[in-house]
Amino acid sequence: MNAIPTLSVVLASLSDGCYVLIVGSLLADRWMHAAWRDADASAKSIRHAALSRFQVVCLGVLTVCHFVRPWFVAASMSGSNGFRENLSLIPAVLSSTRQGVFWYANLAVIAILVAIRFGSGSGKRPFASGLALAALFVLALTKAASSHAADDGDYTLLEFSEFLHLMATAVWAGTILVSGFVIVPFLARLANPETLWSFGGRLSRTVTWAVIVLVLSGIYTSDRELSGSLSGLWTSAWGRILLLKLALVAAALCLGAVSRFRYVRRAATTARAAEFAGLLRAEATVMAAVLCVSGLLANTNRVTL
Amino acid sequence: MRFRILREVNRRRLIPALCAFTMLMAAPALLAHTSPVSMVPAAEASVASPESVVIHFSGALEPKFSMITVTDGTGHVMNKEQSVVGADNKVMTVMLPTLSPGIYTVHWVGVSVDTHRSQGDYKFTVK
């Protein structure tokens, strides 16, 4: 059995997951900083230190994935399973393909992220996180430019739409995952409900905009790309994975709607804070499943509809 | 109370949910493999000795890893030069010497810019 496609899916999912988590942790850190003005300094610094360690781990995994990726690109392009053969093709991949050009660009972005992570003092945190987010925007741009969306050339609306799609996904999934599993349980336990509501309001507003961007970019892309019968949705493995993803996203949207309309828009109380934290954790769990299914879908051959 | 929440969710999130469906439909389209949309000579065509085989693909190709080879009935490779990819990265051409009458097989490999590899064969006849 050929394990390379499976390993390639795992690598891509790991890399995308870390990317999403870094975006989410940077945004969540900024919101927590703004929402928790009255907290005592020691509690804040404990949380910031935990988030920093979290970002370092994600950045580390992202870097490892980046250096391993050329071998898998060579394997995919050559159709060979031979370790040495694909190793010998790496220089050709890096020097002669579009993936190679963007590999170098992404390497520069990762170097900038590492420099920001280890080089910025606590006093420069807002500026540093803004710069890191800008670098992550560039990473999404190169990802869009090396995807199938670039088939019609560069600087096209389709490529731009794909870029927006990637960024909106990272913002939506990343902030929900980091907030649901890391920030909100912590705030619900240690901060007053108003602080949690302030954080929840920022999260809710940002996620709403991210979903709007996802929808608009999706509508444009579907208008460009889709035609014909939808029967492939239930007659192929690809279609069934897509339907599973659809169900999970619908569940995440419903949980997000309940969070927003049932909790964040109502008065903050201690009881509601605990329920809100539980709901967000459930949404984050669903979001983690969405990312896993997305990784699988991205590496499953599309059927011709 | 639970039903009231569900009603609220259904009412307020119906449009985003429908849009999410569209969004999800769109995403996989970005993952398609590139494949031939037209070939000259066409599959199963019967033609006079062609100067070249030209294949138009649905998406951009990686020239370094994409190729066309033409073989005769005994498996001998007929093209003396390697195939080349045009400026728009969607058309691949291989020049051919004068072919004697017989059945020839075109084997193509198309590697898209998103790294996916597809390949196939087709035959044409020289009269």
Short description:
The complex is a heterodimer of chains A (305) and B (127). Helices cover 84% and strands 0% of the residues of chain A. Chain A is mainly α and 305 residues long.
Question: Could you describe the 3D structure shown?
Answer:
With 305 residues, chain A is mainly α. Chain A has helices spanning 4-35, 41-78, 83-96, 98-119, 125-145, 157-190, 193-225, 232-235, 237-264, 270-298. Chain A has 10 helices and no strands. In chain A, α1 packs antiparallel against α5. The mean pLDDT of chain A is 83. Chain B has 2 domains: 1-31; 32-126, Immunoglobulin-like (Sandwich). Chain B has one helix at residues 2-26; strands at 36-40, 46-47, 52-57, 67-71, 84-85, 91-95, 102-111, 117-126. In chain B, 34% of the residues are buried. The model of chain B is unreliable at 1-31 (pLDDT under 50). The chains are: A mainly alpha (305), B alpha+beta (127).
What key phrases describe this protein's structure?
heterodimer, A: 305 residues, mainly alpha, 10 helices, 0% strand, B: 127 residues, alpha+beta, Immunoglobulin-like, 2 domains, four-stranded antiparallel sheet, four-stranded mixed sheet, 1 helix, 20% helix, 35% strand
> In percent terms, what proportion of residues of chain B is strand?
35-45%
| Gross morphology of chain A | globular
The name of the CATH topology of the largest domain in chain B is: Immunoglobulin-like
Note the run of SSEs of chain B as H and E.
HEEEEEEEE
How many DSSP helices of chain B?
Answer: 1
Largest interface: A-B, 51 and 41 residues
Topology:
The complex is a heterodimer of chains A (305) and B (127).
Chain A (H helix, E strand, L loop, with lengths): L3 H32 L5 H38 L4 H14 L1 H22 L5 H21 L11 H34 L2 H33 L6 H4 L1 H28 L5 H29 L7
Helix pairs in contact in A: 1-2, 1-5, 1-6, 1-7, 1-10, 2-3, 2-4, 3-4, 4-5, 5-6, 6-7, 6-10, 7-9, 9-10
Chain B lengths: L1 H25 L9 E5 L5 E2 L4 E6 L9 E5 L12 E2 L5 E5 L6 E10 L5 E10 L1
Parallel strand pairs in B: 2-8
Antiparallel strand pairs in B: 1-3, 3-6, 4-7, 5-6, 7-8
